[in-house]
Write a structure and sequence with these properties.
- The chain is an alpha/beta fold.
- It has 10 helices and 8 strands.
- An 8-stranded mixed β-sheet has the order 3-2-1-4-7-6-8-5, sandwiched between helices.
- β2, α2 and β3 form a beta-alpha-beta unit.
- α1 packs parallel to α2.
């Protein structure tokens, strides 16, 4: 089964990690690649523009959009025409078998999308434990986060109206709605991502903060209130 795949990458001050991600992406030869910047103040845009030629089978694009992962990813998705949308964080590397795995899953019409397992670059200690907990929780709940490289059929994404206009939890909200439409695959193939976010504020503090935010979200606290609280405690 041959499906066209568009990769959408939201960016914001990613100069330290973006070049490596794009170099790895170039080897996978996806049909479309769209980067959507939310107002970077570093060299992110220049790095991206320098690597656009030959990045995908169709000419790769660099856009600007309102800051926020949801509006940035929605803006990028609207410019593509591929059968499948793959949303990738700027610090995340896809495995070589990405296209094959996506096509294998979506050959079955019951699946509307899916996600990959995740590991961190320095896969020891806290990083090892956190990645295993993320994958276990996602496999048990059927809910995924953006670190796991979400992919979705365009038809399903369009039917849902894209990502909800929320400042946090846009990935969880999307997968919750997708599950009502069909099955959501939890692939064993693994993406590799940076551990930087967990280390910046202290690993244990970040773990507790993330768990609390998700618990409050499941209890019905609106994402905009969570964003205000999240900004206050950082």
């Amino acid at each position: 089964m041959s499906l066209s795949i568009a990769v959408v990458i939201p960016t914001l001050n990613e100069e330290r990690v973006l070049s490596r991600t794009l170099l790895a992406l170039r080897q996978l030869r996806f049909d479309e690649v769209v980067l959507v910047d939310g107002g970077s103040r570093d060299q992110t845009v220049a790095i991206a523009q320098g690597q656009l030629p030959g990045l995908s089978l169709q000419p790769a694009k660099m856009l600007e959009a309102e800051q926020g992962r949801a509006p940035q990813m929605n803006a990028g998705a609207r410019t593509t025409r591929s059968d499948v949308l793959l949303f990738l964080h700027a610090d995340t590397l896809l495995p070589p078998e990405t296209r094959t795995e996506i096509e294998r899953v979506l050959e079955n019409p019951k699946y509307v999308g899916g996600r990959f397992d995740v590991r961190f670059e320095d896969d020891r200690g806290w990083a090892w434990l956190i990645s295993r907990l993320i994958n276990w929780r996602s496999r048990w709940s059927g809910i995924a986060t953006g670190d796991q490289a979400l992919f979705v059929r365009r038809s399903a994404f369009d039917d849902l109206g894209g990502f909800a206009d929320v400042p946090l939890m846009e990935d969880i909200e999307l997968t919750r709605r997708l599950k009502r439409m069909g099955s959501f695959a939890a692939l064993r193939a693994t993406v590799t991502t940076s551990f930087r976010r967990w280390q910046q504020q202290g690993t244990l503090r970040t773990i507790l903060q993330m768990w609390l935010l998700r618990f409050l979200y499941w209890m019905g606290v609106p994402p905009r209130i969570l964003q205000h609280w999240y900004g206050t405690i950082r």
